[in-house]
């Protein structure tokens, strides 16, 4: 009876091994699902980028608005008869960094060191 139990246990382990650790086992499926999720996220990011680039290409092919915008902002160009005016905001009066702590006070007669 003991031999039959041991034999059944070994058969059970032999059946379970491919299920958990084999080529199509649970661990491999879990890892592949994780990779699919990462690739799906990357694909969505690239689809958004491609849509943006496609819109920009269509705008460059069809109209002059995108060309003018690029010429103005990237190259600093202006049209004939236009005047370029740039407003510069004043610097903030309060510093964003905290003040330095005061230096340590020296006792009289200690010689400063």
Task: Summarize the biggest pleated sheet.
Answer: none
* Estimated radius of gyration: 36 Å
Order of helical and strand elements: HHH
Oligomer: single chain
Describe the structure in your own words.
This protein is an all-alpha fold. Helices cover 60% and strands 0% of the residues. It contains 3 helices and no strands. The longest helix has 37 residues, at 26-62. The radius of gyration is 36 Å and the shape is flat. The termini are far apart. Belongs to the FtsB family.
The gist of it:
Residues 1-3 are cytoplasmic. Essential cell division protein. May link together the upstream cell division proteins, which are predominantly cytoplasmic, with the downstream cell division proteins, which are predominantly periplasmic. This protein is mainly α and 113 residues long.
Which features characterize this protein?
cell membrane, 0% strand, 113 residues, transmembrane helix, 60% helix, mainly alpha, 3 helices, single chain
Helix/strand layout:
Layout: H1 2-21, H2 26-62, H3 65-75
């Amino acid at each position: 009876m003991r031999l039959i139990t041991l034999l059944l246990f070994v058969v059970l382990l032999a059946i379970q091994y491919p299920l958990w650790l084999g080529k199509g086992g649970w661990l491999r499926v879990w890892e592949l699902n994780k990779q699919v999720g990462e690739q799906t996220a990357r694909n969505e990011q690239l689809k958004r980028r491609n849509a943006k680039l496609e819109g920009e290409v269509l705008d460059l092919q069809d109209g002059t608005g995108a060309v003018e915008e690029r010429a103005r902002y990237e190259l600093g160009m202006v049209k004939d008869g236009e005047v370029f005016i740039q407003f510069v905001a004043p610097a903030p009066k309060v510093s964003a960094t905290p003040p330095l702590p005061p230096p340590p006070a020296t006792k009289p007669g200690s010689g400063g060191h």
